[in-house]
Write a structure and sequence with these properties.
Number of strands: 29
GO molecular function, one term: cysteine-type deubiquitinase activity
Helix content: 25-40%
Protein name: Ubiquitin carboxyl-terminal hydrolase
Number of helices: 24
Pfam families: UBA, UCH, zf-UBP, zf-UBP_var
Organism: Danio rerio
CATH class of one domain: Alpha Beta
Keywords: Hydrolase, Metal-binding, Protease, Repeat, Thiol protease, Ubl conjugation pathway, Zinc, Zinc-finger
Largest sheet: 8 strands, mixed
Structural class: alpha+beta
Length: about 850
């Protein structure tokens, strides 16, 4: 023990006591998914507070020379009171009654009980020091080490800090109308029961307006149930804002809705407001489900949930390499589904998993913040099979006769989710997200982190050719852009069961007029060929500014593939907006084929004898900060500003600018939206606004490219030197940093985004370290090349699809199906099973691979 005491004394200066703000990783290894519950436990460096599994702690010691680690092991506590019904299968779960997580009545969160054992381990010989051993050591050693151990045990781990343990969806605010609500003295008294809608006589989902006591039915839900919207229509006619749901009134309160604030609210004067119509809260009993209970029930009832999750059949659990489940960290199923699919693609396997040792060896001092390290860690966790094992049975003694439940130990991608979501307004939260948006976000991050070497995102990258023909002059304009996803429209008017849909609508209208419950709506059957035809058919542009006739006229735009990627992603545009701008989901079944031939959609380029539109004012309408979906330089390279004459004012569609302003957006932002979308209409401009609302210069005045000075003449001194230094420190040349800042009005954040989005163009510029010289060759003086794209035949086969259940992308659940060795496999978070009936007609994102002939 004397020798150990001497070692501790020699490393005492490297043993730190955690302070507020220190990141303590005591739940998960930086390089693997090992945890204190894993075999071998977790080793926490007592200097950097990084955690390492038994497999990787020696690597950290050898690289850093750190010798003292806190070894943490946890074992599950023995349950003293077992539910008598939990002997086999899952223990009974309480039905959720509250739209919340981690709160009484809400959805359950895992609350395992563990016994924890800690000791100090000294490397390289792994000498162990228990807390009892410290008592016989010198005071200075005992006090320092004991304090460090105690603070490490008491500190919140990073994963615990990031994870939202409790979420309450029922937190409501006091209505602004409650205190001063004016009630009409009409003598109306509401009976304690026997209510019905005064318009359609519906007897459920009834709301009483707190201004005049009118009893009307509530809104229709997305699945066709609910009311007939009469209470909402009444508000729109009268402006009376508050209504209470009859049947939910108890001495503790009731459901109150504010139509003006469009939310469930609190009414502190509810007893007074109810007594005005003869209702005594203290004598009322609940007879109707609350809105929260209805939302939970509806989300559990929708038919597509059972079909997509294949819950009507007994599925055979699968284990082994490439068959690893992922824990849901709270609405993280969108991330789970996307990453499961991506790591079945060879490009991502080769980039991150095949090179994992090299990536780990080159990892920075804090690998938890390194993109390549965390992606490689996730990929290896999914493909290795190390974590593809049955989850421990909740009961203390496993029942060998029970059927396998399908749940796996799996992996919990906490570090990965925190890293890829950091700084993002949506992906940094625990709210549900759109899987398509996350896929593009992740591709963008891959692009930024693959400046050199292999870029797996190239597997998805393709060129789109857009041809616009002026109908007055018959002259054409060709542009190309990079894309990663094909968005396929859903032509509802092409449904093959249109007669059935029309009959169902007729029955619904009859039920609405008679007050009867609406019938179950059938699902529209849409041919895939009709979706493809809607994508390729010409689009009419009514307000196209033609440079040939120097005026607005009508034009047609056709879109074709200028290249075909190795892997094609197709998004079915199921989510749309109604006339009231409320998002809704189209309930459709599409006969998506297993094989696909898109060669007929190959772009042909300029045709013989075809005249091109002259390149004159207005300026090319291209945003300088475009990211993943950038427009290629079809109007000359970005060094040539000859078309951006400062004497030319942008020709803007005033009507579109006015419409955007009426929606409450700043005038200058509206002008930029119309300018950068080429006067192509309100929809395109609105999309631009939604995509740039977080830009620092969103409301800044529109500055035309080249309007401040001629190209190449702006002195470097006019650029913020600190911004230049920041970009140069990232490995770029001063010329590249200068160009990025000029293109983004000297906004550092946008300049960094711009430079990573134009890497292919920048490769032609002079690079600081070992790059080309300015006049090195003729090739270096050619226009910058376009982005690298792969090309080949347009024949594909389906290998994966992601499905969504729920009423919008902001709620519900995602699962994915992946074909492995000619067998469809369903990945439903931690459950991985052989698929019996893959619901290919209900998918949201489809993934195809090129058929090699």
């Amino acid at each position: 023990m004397t020798e150990v005491s001497e070692i501790l004394m020699s490393v005492l200066s490297a043993i730190r006591v955690p302070r507020p703000g220190d990141r303590v990783h005591k739940d998960e290894c930086a390089f693997s998914f090992s945890s204190p519950e894993s075999e071998g436990g977790l080793y926490v460096c007592m200097n950097s507070f990084l955690g390492f599994g038994s497999k990787y702690v020696d690597r950290h010691h050898a690289k850093t020379g750190q010798r003292a680690y806190l070894h943490i092991t946890r074992t599950r506590k023995t349950q003293k009171e077992d539910d008598p019904n939990s002997g086999s299968g899952d223990p009974p779960k309480k039905k959720p009654t509250r739209l919340a997580i981690g709160i009484e009545g809400g959805f359950d969160v895992e609350q395992e009980q563990y016994e924890e054992e800690v000791k100090v381990v000294l490397f390289p010989d792994r000498q162990e020091v228990t807390l009892d051993d410290l008592s016989s050591m010198p005071d200075v050693v005992r006090e320092r080490v004991s304090l460090s151990v105690a603070e490490l045990q008491a500190a919140d781990s990073v994963s615990h800090t990031l994870q939202v343990q409790q979420w309450d969806g029922e937190v409501r605010q006091e209505s602004k109308h409650a205190a001063e609500l004016k009630q009409l003295d009409n003598g109306l008294k509401i009976p304690p029961s026997g209510w019905k809608c005064e318009v359609c006589e519906l007897q459920e989902n009834l709301w009483m307006n707190l201004t005049d006591g009118k009893v009307l039915c509530g809104r229709r839900y997305f699945d066709g149930s609910g009311g007939n919207n009469h209470a909402l229509l009444y508000y729109q006619q009268t402006g009376y804002p508050l209504a209470v749901k009859l049947g939910t009134i108890t001495p503790d309160g009731a459901d109150v809705y504010s139509y003006d604030e469009d939310d469930m609210v609190l009414d502190s004067k509810l007893p007074e407001h109810l007594s005005h119509f003869g209702i005594d809260m203290m004598t009322m009993e609940k007879t109707e489900r609350t809105m929260t209970e209805l939302e939970i029930a509806v989300n559990q009832r929708v038919g597509e949930w059972e079909v997509i999750q294949e819950s009507g059949t007994t599925l055979r659990p699968l284990w082994g390499p490439g068959l690893t489940g992922m824990k849901n960290l709270g609405n993280s199923c969108y991330l789970n589904s996307v990453m499961q699919v991506l790591f079945t693609i060879p490009d991502f396997q080769t980039k991150y998993v095949s090179n994992i040792d090299k990536i780990f060896d080159e990892a920075p001092s804090d690998p938890t913040q390194d993109f390549k390290t965390q992606v490689a860690k996730l990929g290896y966790g999914l493909l290795s099979g190390e974590y593809s094992k049955p989850a421990p049975d909740p009961a203390d003694e496993p029942n060998t006769s029970a059927e396998p439940r399908g749940d796996q130990v799996g992996i919990a991608p906490r570090m990965f989710k925190a890293l890829v979501g950091r700084g993002h307004p949506e992906f940094s939260t625990n709210r549900q997200q759109d899987a398509q948006e996350f896929l593009l976000h992740f591709i963008n991050m891959v692009e930024r982190n693959c400046r050199s070497g292999m870029n797996p995102s190239e597997a998805f990258r393709f060129l789109v050719e857009e041809k616009i023909v002026c109908q007055q002059s018959q002259k054409a304009k060709y542009t190309q852009r990079v894309d990663y996803i094909v968005q396929l429209p859903v032509p509802m008017d092409q449904a093959t069961n249109m007669d059935e849909l029309q009959e169902a609508e007729r029955r619904r209208e009859e039920a609405e007029s008679s007050g009867a419950p609406p019938p179950v709506a059938p699902r529209a059957q849409i041919p895939f060929a009709a979706c493809l035809a809607a994508l390729s058919e010409p689009e009419t542009l009514t307000d196209f500014w033609s440079s040939a006739v120097q005026a607005k006229t009508t034009a047609t735009k056709t879109t074709r593939f200028a290249s075909f990627p190795d892997h094609l992603v197709i998004q079915i545009k199921k989510f749309t907006f109604g006339l009231d701008w409320v998002p809704k989901k189209l309930d459709v079944s599409i006969d998506v084929p297993e094989t696909l031939d898109l060669n007929a959609l190959r772009a042909m380029g300029q045709q013989p004898g075809e005249e091109l539109l002259p390149e004159v004012a207005p300026p090319p309408l291209m945003t300088p900060d475009v990211e993943v979906k950038g427009i290629l330089g079809s109007h000359g390279n970005e060094e040539d500003d000859s078309l951006y004459s400062p004497l030319l004012s942008p020709v803007l569609d005033d009507s579109t600018v006015s419409q955007l302003c009426e929606m409450g957006f700043p005038l200058e932002a509206c002008r930029k939206a119309v300018y950068y979308t080429g006067n192509t209409g309100i929809d395109a401009a609105m999309n631009w606004v939604m995509g740039h609302m977080d830009d620092p210069d969103f409301a800044a005045p529109l500055v035309l490219p080249g309007s401040s000075s001629a190209p190449g003449t702006t002195p470097t001194e006019s650029l913020p030197e600190e911004h230049l230094a920041t970009i140069v420190s990232m490995g770029f040349s001063r010329d590249q940093a200068t160009r990025a800042l000029r293109a983004t009005n000297n906004v550092l954040e946008r300049a960094v985004d711009w430079i990573f989005s134009h890497l292919d163009d920048l490769e032609s510029m002079d690079v600081s370290e070992g790059g080309r010289s300015e006049g090195g060759s003729e090739a270096s003086r050619e226009p910058p090349p376009g982005p690298r794209v792969r090309d080949g035949t347009g024949k594909y086969e389906l290998f994966a699809f992601i499905s969504h259940m729920g009423s919008s992308t902001m709620c519900g659940h995602y699962v994915c199906h992946i074909k492995k060795d000619q067998q469809w496999v369903i990945f439903n978070d931690q459950k991985v099973c052989a698929s019996e009936k893959p619901p290919k007609d209900l998918g949201y994102l489809y993934f195809y691979r090129r058929v090699v002939e």
